[in-house]
Structure formats: C-alpha cells, structure tokens
Here is the input.
Amino acid sequence: MKGFIGVDWGGTSLKIGLLDSKFSLKLKRTIPTKEIARKEDFLSVFPKAIFSLIKEAGINNEDIKGLGIGAPGVIDVRKGYIYLLPNVKGWENVPLKRLLEKRLPFNVYIDNDANLYALAESKLGAGKNFNNLLCLTLGTGVGGGLILNKKLHRAQNLSNCEAGHICVELEGRTCSCGAKGCIETFVGNKYLVNFYLENTQNRFTPIVRRLMKSEKELTPQILYKAALLGDKLSQRVFGRLANALGVYIAGIVNLLGLEAVIIGGGVVGAWRLISEDIKKIVKKYTMPPFNRKVKVLKAKLRKNAGILGAGILAKEGMGV
Amino acid sequence: MKGFIGVDWGGTSLKIGLLDSKFSLKLKRTIPTKEIARKEDFLSVFPKAIFSLIKEAGINNEDIKGLGIGAPGVIDVRKGYIYLLPNVKGWENVPLKRLLEKRLPFNVYIDNDANLYALAESKLGAGKNFNNLLCLTLGTGVGGGLILNKKLHRAQNLSNCEAGHICVELEGRTCSCGAKGCIETFVGNKYLVNFYLENTQNRFTPIVRRLMKSEKELTPQILYKAALLGDKLSQRVFGRLANALGVYIAGIVNLLGLEAVIIGGGVVGAWRLISEDIKKIVKKYTMPPFNRKVKVLKAKLRKNAGILGAGILAKEGMGV
Here is the structure.
C-alpha cells in the first residue's frame, strides 16, 4: 500500500491517520494534546508516533508520499511556518515544516484546521459538486475555509480565514476579539448560553431546570433539547442564531458569488431547529442571479474530516 | 499603432477609448447613453462609432487586437452574455459578445463595470503592489470588484460582486434590495441625505441653509462642505459612514486576508473627512497578522478608469 498521513491537531487530542491513495482510513492513532503542547515534546514524540504507525501498518517509509497537518492557528502554508496558535503558548514563529522534514523522510505540509476541514468537505463531502463554497465550523468559535474556483483560498500564502469576525450588528455584544456584533457573538457556544442567562437573570426556565437535574453546566445542547420540548426562550436562542447566520451567509454569497455554504461543528446538532430558517433567509437576501442556485448544506464528514483534509493536503501540496 | 478599444457604459454616456498597447489613451468618443438604450439602436450605432473612431485614428481594423466593454449589470463573462442591466430595460439575456462579433472584426469581451474599475486600479492605479484587494466605488450605490491572488474573482464565470448588500446592522434601515442594514444604507448618496433630513425633520441646519441658497437639491457634496464648516449633524453623517465602512472593511479583510482596500467614486470627495477614521477602525478590527499590513487607499485613476479596465480586459480576455 502507498498512501498519505493526515494529522488533525485538536484541542484535546492529536489524531494521526494513515490513508491509502483513495483517502480510505487504514490506521489511526491518538496522542493527548497536552503531551505535545511543548515544542520540544512535539518534536520528539510526534516523529516516533509516525514511525511506529508505519511499522504497525507493515509498510515502508518510502510508501508514504507525504504528511499533512491541520493546526489550530495562523500558518504560512508555503513555508510550513506557524505564526501563532492562539490557544497554545510557545508556538510563535515555529518553522514546523523544516523541523519535521529533518526528522521524517517525506514532505510535510501544514495548514489551518478549518481550511483543511473545508478542503475535505469540498473534495469528499457535501461540497463535491460546487466550485465556490464557504465551509463553516460552528462551535466554541467560528472556523471558516473558502474554496474559490475549486481551490482553497489563501491570501499572501497564509492560512487564515477569520470568518467569525465579521460584524452583523454595529452596536452588538462585545466579541472575544474586542469588536462588537461579530457573527461569533450570535453563534458561538458561550454566547448562546449567555443570551439565555441574560434573559432569565441567571435563573432557569422550567423545562431547562428539569433538564439540568442530571447536568453540571448549561450548554447549547441542553438549550436545544429544551427548545424541542417547547421552551420559548431556548427557541429564541436558536431563532436569533438562524436569523443572524442567514443574513451573514447572504452577505458573503453576495460578495463572492458562492454556490454553497456548508455548516459543520457542534451547532449541526441543532440542524432540525435552524436549517429551514437559515435557508429561507439566505434565499431572501441573496441577490439575483445567485439566489436561484445557492445551497446551504450540513457537513457530511464526521470525526475524521480533519485527518482527511490533511491527507488531501499531503497529496496535493500547495496545489489544492 | 496597434492597440485596444475600451468601452465604459455609464448612466449618462457610453465612452469609447482607443488605447495603445501600453494603455495610453489615444482617442476618445462619447455617445449619450439614451441613444443606445434600446438594443436595436445599440447594435446599429455602436459598430459605426467604432469604425469611425478607427478611421479617425488613421489605423486599420487589423490594428485593433480586441475590444472590452464594462457594462452596469450581471454578465456571464465567458459567454459575453448580459443577464440583466438593473437600470436599463430590455437587456435581459442578451448574447452581446456574439451579436457584436458578427458586426466587428475583432474579439469582444464584456464584464461588469465595477469589476473593470477594480482591474484598472489593480494594474495601473493604487493597487499595483498588492495581490489581494477589494476595490469599492461608492456613490449612488456600492460597486465592488475583488482581486484575489492577482486575478479578478469571478465565481461561476459571472461578473457580479454585490459588495453593497452585506449587512452590518441586523435591524438597520431598509435597503433598496429589501434587506435591512446593508452597508449601502450607510454610504449610498441618498441614505446620507436621508439620515441628515430625518434628524432635522426635513429642515436645514444654519450652515446647510446658507449653502443651499445657490442649490436645488441637498447632496452629499453640500453636507461635506457643511461638515468642513463645522455643521455638527453633517459631521455625524460622515462619522457614521466612516464607522460603518471601517467595520465592514475589517470583516472582509478578516474573511479574505486582503492586503488593501481601494475606495473610489463620489465619496472620495470627502476623503479628508473620513479617511483617518476608516483607517483607524480597519486597523483596530482586523485580526492578526493581517492588521499589520492592510492598507486603505484612495483610488488613483479618475474619469478614464472604466475605459482602461475595459482595455485591460480586451488585451487579456478571461486571463485577468
């Protein structure tokens, strides 16, 4: 077997996948993120894990045609250089590609994780039939990747698509970035919970109170269940999300002439509650002729999307 | 001389320019737009004007290497097909490239006027040193063209970049497109005037009253003069514009990693009043690392920008 290695560097675990040339996952291995949080540890632990994976698969180093990494930060993709990882200290200005290629016998490529998620969805998931799309991952924050005319958009060779920090309400709530009314303040997990709690003065409505009996912390998942059970305020939380997200998507479609927007991440758990509203608003506020064609779709790939995207990057390098 | 013909199809006049291979304007001719508003008139008047221009220049048909047209509407650029011109009736679904190439002995290319304005600024104007930029024309409405990695972005081969219809205020004023709080409702001429008049209950503040003595109609130009003379409400009109425009630009830079945003059109008349505020807000709300480099610039090309952009299209075809 000849193939690629795709690496998904997440908040809790770093997942390594061995993929064949058709991106079928052959073998997977997981390292707790905290074990490789320090750069020195990464450089000793990671190559060992790769060699051990290859050995376990019963193949040779030469069978691996490239290794791709999706990292949670800003990356110069051409250089394979990490500018910063906002949530991991000590990773400012790290030439990771160069450091790893000294230790591994194949080409290494690095890009932002949301970019590679978009790449995976566009090549193997919900975006296969579209040339121009935005892929959003909605959860704690907002991740985004843009495919324009079939290629991942990277300006200045950088990985970053800060899709969460686009204002939809000039005098809206303050965002973690310091600006007001970013789309993240309408769809990010903590903002959903905060909107609910502000409206109840930190108490629970009856349905939520019942659901909270077996829970430690109020989450969007609980609000989603409460909304389905008829809790009016929880329904408003998701109605507000759907409205803002629809208006935001219509604006980006107007700017770029996108054919599709794919939504993934935790918020997809509430798809049944929000998708019709989002689609209706996108249709209404997108300009002709794009309003006739534009699609809003749920992401198709699940937990291995990051590995697959990194594998595609490993195969195609900067050409994707 | 060998060269190109660039055509700028504006609201009051259609301008035809003969350009040499270095895009220097050699000869110019103007046709009132109303004389060619009907399709039949266009197809008889326009080719005659082209042949007469060539004759006047003392060159031959073979010296013309291509003709480009910037039209105010939605165009399939690959086919040279006009879907619609929002402000001119009877131009729905017109295969203009095909119709003109039957009547003219050279290749004809057609694109949206704002796209060609962006192309001209990026190749010959304020955008020469940037690979990724947005060029906005702010006047009656908002026109936009995006250059991404040195090429004009066209999704689905269509010309349209509806940059004016991006929401920055969910519950803002109603826009001509039917949505609420589009950036156009903060920067379009009539919205500037309306904002002023709403705040005075349709009266004039003293400074504006004085300026209106020799005028028929309140315009953004008068408000600009009043603002410079110390009229507080006129200053608020432009303060509101600068704030919304800055926030809007920061969002698009965050999404696309742009290096520059170029602003042209009538609003540039108030550059002295708005530019510092816009730049400050863009810097503040753009995410790292893009905030370090992003530039907000005034357009450089003046009245012939449309002709120049159309000439570049004529030379390079779809390759631009």
